[in-house]
Amino acid sequence: MTESTRIARLQGLLTEAGHAAMYVSDLLNIRYLTGFTGSNGALLVHAAKDPVFLTDGRYKDQAAVQLVAAGLGQIEVVITRDLIGVAAGRAPSDLAAETHLLDVDSWQKLDRPEPSGRLIEQLRLVKDEAEIAALRRACEISVAALEGLLTGPLVGRTEREVARDLQWRMLELGADDKAFDTILAAGENTAIPHHEPTDRPLATGDLLKIDFGALADGYHADCTRTVVLGKAQPWQVEIHAAVRQAQQTGLDQLRAGELIADVFNAVTTSLAESGWLDSFTTGLGHGVGLQIHEDPFLGTTHPGRLASRMVLTMEPGIYLPGSGGVRIEDTVLVTDPEHGGEPDVLTDTTKELLEIH
Fold first, then answer.
1. From the centroid of its chain, how far is CA 281?
2. Which of 80, 213, 279, 339 could form a disulfide linkage to 221, CB 3.0–4.6 angstroms apart?
């Protein structure tokens, strides 16, 4: 799907909602619709005619190149420092906008537009072929970097050193950047779900939890694996097995048409049966794309169902304060039921409890 097709789909939603146009200010949504990656821009999308793109003089040449590359060379580009003012002067009276992102002054300057809701985010829920290709590349880079890291040596190095090593490996393999700040935790720190790496040295007997991902073409990977340095102790084997079973239960549920609440309930039932539900204290999963955390978020209150081409994480965990914890996470593509419907795990690497010596 091209950016022009995405704009056409948005125009259809605007027509259905009764809006003549929409002012788009979220830079990620602008990138989704136009390919523009600058730090200042806006898009006035008319329901029945070509959009107008607005940016300042710094991005005149960049916008021209990126819009042409996206197949949007025909749309008008307005160079101005007053994006909102110019857009307001050219907008029809029935204007919608991302009012959840506007301050009061901007809302008033646009003559009090109607809330658009999250129309573009609705489009972004289901990925197209270009998005899936970028996500797959980000995940492949991530997995290759992790597999290289785990060849060692690791014992004696600090959490910070190992985290930086992993990030460098992703860059060397072609990542544009890390997808988010790497969570690398050893020993008792693995019980902290979002631990920030420290100067604590890795030691024999430690659990080692690595939550990381690469950024490629604007799209994020998200993966977690937990290993042990040396011989695993029985309690480490037990909680890892419980998390792995719960995660597999969740993966089996990631099928088009499944209620999102039912996916969550299936995983928590697995953890309850193994006796570890009380030690699961984090979210279960979230959408991944141009943002590392985006809709849908897996939970009991989510009213929706999974759809083919959604990409999201499955990441149950067990956290035992003062002792350690285990999380296993994959980035997963929900596939077309007409072709079997098996979830496509994009972060395809072993989930065994590796003993790293």
1. 20
2. 213
